[in-house]
Amino acid sequence: MTDVRFLPDDKAVDAKLEEVAGLLRRLIDDSEGGSIDLRGLPLPPSCIETLDQCLGHGEIIVVMDAAGRSEIRETSLPGVWWTKHADGAGRVIAMLIEAAVTPGNLRADVVDMKRGQGRLPGLIKIACRTA
Fold first, then answer.
1. Domains parsed from the chain with CATH numbers
2. What is the C-alpha to C-alpha distance for residues 98 and 18, in angstroms, rounded to an integer?
3. Is the pTM of this model over 0.70?
């Protein structure tokens, strides 16, 4: 990974785009994606804005409200997602670029699925009584 602290803005953006290319290549070739934590990098806001513009917007946007607002947006590159998490006060606490078939936050948790499965019999009884 390139140390972007000492690069001009355009070189820092190029370095991050190269990293995205590597993540996407790994996802395609090995079914293993990865992510870049933009908040953990010494990137100025102008670099993050340029990176966002370069990656563009795709067809999917998901907004979640769980202990704060999260927005998961497909970029113009299928399999590359721009994710922003905010806390309950609206402060951005995480900003990621993720290469994944499905972003991690959108995958259903097995425990949650089992809980939902356990609720189905009650829902079926209710539906049968009202029909």
1. 4-106 (3.30.1370.140)
2. 13
3. yes
Tally Cβ neighbours within 10 Å of residue 126. 10
- The structure tokens 């951005």 sit at 92
Residues 6+ apart with CB under 8 A from 32: 26
H or E segment to which residue 82 belongs? strand 80-86
List 37's β-bridge partners, or say none. 96
What are 83-130's pLDDT values in tens digits?
999 999 999 999 999 999 988 778 888 998 999 999 988 888 776 766
Is 32 in contact with 51 (CB distance < 8 Å)? no
Distance CA 10, CA 49 (A): 11
